[in-house]
Input
Amino acid sequence: MEELLELVTSGVKLDFIHVANAMNKLARVAKRGTGEHSLKLEGKRLSRDPRYAQLIDLVRVHCPSFRAQAGANVLHALGVLQADLGATAVDERLATQLGGFVERRTSEMNPQNVANTLNALCKLEAAAAAVTSSGWVGLAEAAERTASEMKPQEIANSLNALCKMEAAAAAMSPTGWMGLAEAAERTASEMNSQEIANSLNALSKIKAAAAVVSPSGWKRLVEAAERTAREMNPQGIANSLNALSKLEAAAAAVTSSGWVGMAEPAERTASEMNLQAVGNSLNALSKIKAAAAAVSSSGWVGLAEAAERTASEMNPQEIAISLNALSKIEAAAAAVSPAGWVGLVEAAERTASEMDPQNVGNTLNALSNIKAAAAVVSTAGWKRLAEAADRTASEMNPQNVGNTFNALSKIEAAAAVVSPSAWKRLAEAVERTAIEMNPQNVANSMDALGVLPKAAADLSLSSRKNLQAAAEREAPNMNSYEREATLRGCEKLNLRIPNAILDSDQFR
Output
């Protein structure tokens, strides 16, 4: 690295090819360090080195001359140096220049150039923000044009970047998504563990791409995940499981031995998982019964310990996801220690003021199902969660409303600290969302309101009419539990019982 930096001050005149090559080599050499800590130290050292600043000045000088290969290499290097190492380089001026490069050169790009450019832009926010609409269209067309020649790493990086940049994804045509999906299918058998994890993760977030993957394509992708699972790192297995929990067609293609193979790395890497990986893994396992069934007792202990270890750093979404998952997986909840529940509950109390409607509903619903967790929530903690419900009530969707009411009807300590104004706002949420409620939402809301007199007292005539209409509409689709819960609610709220419930074999 010293030789590369010395070249900048050697007095040798560097043209745009020299500068691009120097940036590319610098990024490769600087990233040879092992571990995030050593990379960040290298980044700090570079940031303080005046020769690095001079090299970035040369990038600014030569940026207008960069052709596709040189510019893509420089973008890739900047993504590594700034995003991975923390060696800040892209200011507003350079970001504008890089956006101009994208606009000018996409028509010349080969598959590697496209993938490197997309990958870099998803790391460099300022540069991505400087790309114009026509620039994104040009880059999308380049991805479409080169997809059939992309290698495993190139298609994985392209999909990974597109799932993180709305402007880029919005510029893709249906034909473009088809080309990228076909490329993922074609290269799946050659993908390594990181590439398949990134591909599945991206497809779980890009509906337009997932929609055009063929059944045989899902089979190839799943076979790649099964083949490489034993080599996956904590993030890779967490992302793969999380993706499979959202991609029904993919999950359906996983074999029994495949689930066992993917449960093993989740167990093996649990002690190294960060808080996001823990939440994603538990959340996925709570949704995929076949995967959860393959986790051993010691595996659940490891995942529970990972949740305990990371709880103090969890944000609102992570703690809500983790608690929600634990409430659905008995084996995992049973493995959480008393101290672990205290840590998880403290995280819920700490983050309550930042929770969104979904976090609030999921957290309360989980606590209503986990006695060991609810038992260690402090009075102040219940108050914070009740205040969070009050604050977010106006934005809650039908599921959030149903989960919140259902939980409050089961947790006396939580219901006791809900303020009169909060009950009013929650009642208004029922009125607003009733028209969209599914059978479970209707049943949970009505059953809960039947045993929460303070909430029921705030139901307006309009709210009651909307609930009645929702019950009539959804009754034919209800299961036995939902019919029973709705019947109880109707009786206690003095609402008409839907004929579809009264005429069911259950109540004849």
Notes: The radius of gyration is 27 Å. DSSP finds 35 helices and no strands in the chain. The CA atoms of residues 16 and 66 lie 6 Å apart. The longest helix spans residues 68-84.
